[in-house]
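Now for my pick.
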Amino acid sequence: MKVEFAPLNIPLARRLQTAAVLQWVLSFLLLAQVCLGVIVFLIIYNYWFLYIPYLTWLYFDWQTPEQGGRRSDWVRSWTIWRYFKDYFPIHLIKTWDLNPSHNYIFGFHPHGVLVAGAFGNFCTNYSNFKELFPGLTAYLHVLPFWFRCPLFREYLMSSGPVSVSRRSVSHVLSKEGGGNISVIVLGGAEESLDAHPGKFTLFIHQRKGFVKMALTHGAYLVPVFSFGENELFKQVSNPEGSWLRAVQEKLQKIMGFALPLFHARGIFQYNFGLMPYRKPIHTVVGRPIPVRQTLHPTPEQIEELHQTYMDELRKLFEEHKGKYGIPENETLIFR
């Protein structure tokens, strides 16, 4: 295989975009382990004046990811995130006005490998979210696992993510007078194992907890489809029934998160590496589904609203797929 190297005369802006995405990928893959290593180092070499105050504070701060987090407007405004957004680039598209007097659940699809579209649009100040949805604040919910790692949790919370636990979602949706959005990647870790280019498989049939939360809090449901999310990486072939898929699913059940064997391009060449491809991401926010608050919803009410949500999600995909190069015969596969 002939390696295709990047030309030497690439503009500085594109090099900075590559550097921004590289640090994001490395942070996702390695920063938690590095932070844990720092704590272990401090303990082994008895830097008690550093780790004892931090661990004491951590004990009292443990619930913060379930209580709205601790976002930093300064961190969300780092210039590096502008370069991150422009690398792909990432676009946020509104199809309907949202009334800030309501709370909302954004169902984000598909998961993709690293959920770049959700991060770029809802965890930085460089998408046009504030202009498109004035008066609303978005909270991206991620696995509680990430908030259990000392030091790393502080960095993660600074850009806005909070836990995806039931208590955390309830906290966001309980805001009096509305104005909050829970952004939930509904397919979860399981769906990332099907994040292959050209595939549109969504794990949603058994995901009904978000519907119950919407009914309990009277939060409007909004389907969101991120076109291009599955095009950023390739995965080692892992069809249903293969030994690799069986191992991945087993690990996912044990650890709570999946391990897709992904690859794409490198830093200085285009043939192999862990850098995502430069593929545009268009995150389209659909029509809100009105929800009347029902403190104790019945299974029938949950099922009815869940079906309505899937119908709206499919409609959103069908209405916009042609704009983003998806063939007419392609459609969503619900699992």
Notes: The first strand starts at residue 90 and ends at 94. The first helix runs from residue 12 to 44.
